[in-house]
Specification:
alpha+beta, Phosphorylase Kinase, domain 1, Transferase(Phosphotransferase), domain 1, 2 domains, 5-stranded antiparallel sheet, 3-stranded antiparallel sheet, 9 helices, Kinase-like_dom_sf, Ser/Thr_kinase_AS
Amino acid sequence: MSLPVMASDGSDVVLFLEQLFDFYSQNMREVDLSELFEVIRELGSGTFGSVLLVKDPRMMALKMLDRSRTCQSNFIREFSVSFFLSSHPNIIGGYGLAFRFKNHYAFAQELSPIGDLHSLIPVNEGLPEAVVKRCAVQIASALDFMKSKGLVHLDIKPENILVFDRECALVKITDFGLTQFKGQRISCKTGSKSYKSPELCQETSMEFLAADPRIDVWAFGVVLFLLMTGMFPWEDATLEDRKYRRFVRWQQASPSKFTPYPWKKLPSALHSMFHSLLAVDITVRGDATDVLAYMDLTWKKKVSQKARRTVGTKRKRTDLHPE
């Protein structure tokens, strides 16, 4: 059985992914990790597994998922989606290699030499304007590509954006474990707390929603604010959260009579961009590519030397949390 080939016009994404899923379901064999790769070290770990730096002789990242906590169909689905999207320059590259080891499922991806974007963000300061703009353009491009394929990532956050140089000339989205087709039913528990859109945070009788690319747009807006300021705009998008409640009142005011903290940290010309990305009403929320219209504007207010001296330059990534 040969590897399926995508139609030249990119049509029928669902059919192609089904064929890819079937191919790896039938052809993934159980092998010994040590026979295939030289394991250099662990790059990171989490609830469901780890990422290893391996050599074959190429240096690559091997995503390992614990078989006791992951069903094979979910693993192959994540791998297939990731591999399918990997042709985009701002989505993590794949090698089409998936394995079943004794205790893990695994697939190989290109290695990010720097790590994830979260690790670079100075707390309460944010990244330089030029760096933020580079990230914004690339993330927007990747999200627009996913939207064109009818896919919704559902877990956009700096931890899932890999960095290939410290100036962020190249960043790539990764981790497609939650990705769904637009319109598919998703749990309201989907996503990471501070990046979840209000429709996912509402405590109503609805336990499920339809996946929508505008859920990713909201998370993208939160990511941009975090990159620019080094802080979260709120802890979660519920009216119980004071900062979020003030943001909602500000967005609904016509004309706006006040700018709440921490939005005062941003140039006023940029407020409309965030009102689009973070529109509380999903039906009027903009697209990720809306940021392109703001590239010629100033994104960060200048900070005085006195203020700069009060901001530490060396922070642990664990210090970055919703305020």
